[in-house]
Write a structure and sequence with these properties.
By secondary structure, this protein is mainly α. The chain has 22 helices and three strands. The longest helix is centred in the C-terminal third of the chain and has 32 residues, at 387-418. This is U-box domain-containing protein.
């Protein structure tokens, strides 16, 4: 029998007027009508100069991202996905009481040790997840519940070892860990527990990054970020075979913005060590970051974190070289100055200072000049920027003034030879 609650009604204004599909990247024309970017771009590329919905002649063919609608679509999409997941299983129960939690944990532990009745185990764990989602107070309670975190870590290590046979269970464990780990006070101890040699927690988190749903991959990246507390833990995470490259896949521009943000946050956290920076540069991270920075659809948080990541890599010689080698990367960074947020501006100026002033790369200096960077630096110095940004701006101005004088001197010399007095 087909269940009616498996059918999800799509709000009309979430659909593109051209393709009639849910919009992935909504953009608005000057007429105020919103379309999916790929559909309206195809319409305009075909030589049309009217708005498809109103047939008004377009005064401008430029369009702007409709980020409010994009967020609404994302919220609806997540809700619809959760609805389908809940509908496919038994009807949802109310969250368990505090008295029932310990019994549920004991029940899960017993069933897991015997490796049987996986559906019953998953159902019990799902009840605890609902309890955690209900309130911050519940999450605090679980984090402080005697033996709860340790038991979850045992589940995490064991579920990953059995590959996909218990993958649904593994995703629930990772999601629950993400909910409660931030409430666990001793993150140092948490890292030690998760990275113990007799536990293969990293293998389980890697498996979720590779095969999990979007929300599970986000949770896995956030768990990794939480346990990366010191140089040792960051190195252990970065050197786990395949984990760094899999995390990089999260920040592909085509991915869900929340997934990109989680991936960037994780990478920023673990990339402080020189060995890790070298590996990231080798894996082509800078090319991906340059795409994120140049993408006008990138959110403020994604742009800030992508610039922060570039700033981190620009502190490393090979990183600075790759930034200068990547065509358009420096110009994209210049365009973000004074355009996104004060944090983004500070990251951008630090990168420009590293490649133009510290590294003295002539290609970067020329690209900054072509991108009208000098004007931006002058405007920045007139703004209410931080002392460190102001000083870096002064250093950059010195570079461009020296270059300008050099060019003028060269021009005067040539003129003198051509027209002697």
């Amino acid at each position: 029998m087909v269940r009616d609650d498996l059918y999800i009604t799509v709000p009309t204004f979430f659909k593109c007027p051209i393709s009639l599909d849910v919009m992935k990247s909504p953009v608005s024309l000057c007429t105020g009508v919103t379309y999916d970017r790929s559909s309206i771009q195809r319409w305009l590329d075909n030589g049309n100069n009217t708005c498809p919905a109103t047939m008004q002649v377009l005064q401008s063919k430029e369009f702007v991202p409709n980020r409010t609608l994009q967020r609404l679509i994302q919220i609806w999409s997540d809700s619809a996905r959760n609805h389908r997941a809940d509908s496919a299983q038994s009807p949802p129960d109310s969250p368990p009481s505090l008295d029932q939690l310990q019994d549920l944990m004991n029940d899960i532990r017993t069933k897991t040790e015997k490796s049987n009745n996986n559906s019953h185990t998953l159902d019990s764990l799902s009840k605890i997840v609902r309890f955690a989602k209900e309130s911050e107070e519940n999450r605090n309670f679980l984090a402080k519940m005697d033996g709860f975190i340790v038991t979850l870590l045992e589940f995490l290590a064991n579920a990953g070892g059995r590959e996909c046979r218990k993958f649904d269970f593994l995703e629930e464990v990772v999601g629950l860990l993400n909910l409660v780990l931030s409430k666990f006070e001793d993150h140092q101890q948490l890292s030690k527990m998760m990275l113990k040699s007799d536990r293969d927690c990293l293998a389980s988190l890697l498996l979720v990054l590779q095969q999990g749903r979007t929300d599970s991959r986000i949770a896995s990246a956030r768990v990794l970020e939480t346990i990366a507390n010191d140089a040792e833990s960051k190195l252990l995470i970065a050197e786990k075979d395949g984990l760094l490259s899999e995390t990089l896949k999260l920040i592909t521009p085509e991915n869900d913005p929340a997934l990109i943000e989680a991936g960037l946050s994780c990478l920023v956290r673990i990339s402080m060590l020189k060995r890790v920076k070298a590996e990231l540069v080798h894996l082509g991270t800078i090319k991906t970051l340059a795409k994120l920075v140049s993408d006008s659809n990138s959110s403020v948080m994604v742009t800030e974190k992508a610039l922060k990541m570039l700033e981190t890599l620009s502190s490393f010689k090979e990183g600075r070289w790759e930034i200068c080698e990547n065509g358009g990367c420096v110009a994209a960074i210049v365009q973000r100055v004074l355009k996104v947020s004060s944090a983004a501006t500070e990251h951008a100026v630090t990168i420009l200072w590293s490649v133009c002033y510290l590294f003295r790369d002539e290609r970067a200096q020329e690209e900054v000049a072509r991108a009208n960077g000098l004007t931006k630096i002058l405007l920045l110095m007139q703004s209410n920027c931080s002392p460190s940004v102001r000083q870096m701006s002064v250093d950059l101005l010195k570079i461009f003034r020296v270059n300008s004088k050099s060019c003028l001197s060269s021009y005067d010399t040539k003129t003198t030879h051509i027209m002697p007095f």
